[in-house]
Amino acid sequence: MKAVGQLVVIEGLDGAGKRTLSDGLTAALKEAGASVAGLAFPRYGRSVHADLVRETLHRGHGDLADSVYGMAMLYALDRSGAADEIRELQAANDVVLLDRYVASNAAYAAARLRQHADGEVVRWVWDLEVSRFALPRPDAHLLLRVSPEVAAERAERRAEADSARTRDAFETDDSLQLRCAGVYDELAAAGWLAPWHVLDGVAGVDLPTLAKSLLG
């Protein structure tokens, strides 16, 4: 029986370069002989919950964006709807790369409530997504670490170059991004949900070496 593929999650601030890392790492893994599949969250255009997130973050649906738990529930429901697809991708590939996953919910919800990684909302996210929804658990997190200032500058340039990727209410909140960076560091230090590997998003990543380490 074929072994289930590794589930590797790329995390980081908005504008950290997660999509670029995902594309480059996919190419490096394939060069090393691995079969690779990928999925990005939220699944805009594919999930009603993800589309509600996008609409809300661009000031739709009244005051829904003000509810930390309400927004976190929408993100979680989007992932719950993808659980079977993730398992199918794992069964068919050596590695499945996810651009954002459960840790994003934990980091942003905690940052919005000004809590730390050991706070109540992070435990709630775990209980909801890991325990209740039984989402596939990742084998590794890759935290692409950049300063909030660098992330904001990159997100702004991205929005200018692509009208479909305008910055939302979370992306334009500099203080939220700063707090979120701190929570991500705490999650990584605690090894929350799966082992974390912190990557320098400014100096660059040695993709062939990273690919080999993931493949063991």
TrEMBL record:
- Pfam families per UniProt: Thymidylate_kin
Membrane recorded as keyword: no
One Gene Ontology BP term is: dTTP biosynthetic process
Reaction catalysis annotation: dTMP + ATP = dTDP + ADP
The EC number(s) attached to this protein equal 2.7.4.9
The UniProt keywords, alphabetically, are:
ATP-binding, Kinase, Nucleotide biosynthesis, Nucleotide-binding, Transferase
Does Transmembrane appear among the keywords? no
GO molecular function terms here? Answer: ATP binding; dTMP kinase activity
Gene Ontology cellular-component terms listed: cytosol
Q: Which residues form the Thymidylate kinase-like domain?
A: 10-177
Q: Which InterPro entries match?
A: P-loop_NTPase (IPR027417), Thymidylate_kin-like_dom (IPR039430), Thymidylate_kin_CS (IPR018095), Thymidylate_kinase (IPR018094)
Q: Which protein family is named in the record? A: Belongs to the thymidylate kinase family.
* HAMAP family tied to this protein: Thymidylate_kinase
Q: What does this protein do?
A: Phosphorylation of dTMP to form dTDP in both de novo and salvage pathways of dTTP synthesis.
Q: Kindly provide the name given to this protein in its UniProt entry.
A: Thymidylate kinase
What organism, scientifically named, is this protein from? Amycolatopsis panacis
* Gene name of this polypeptide: tmk
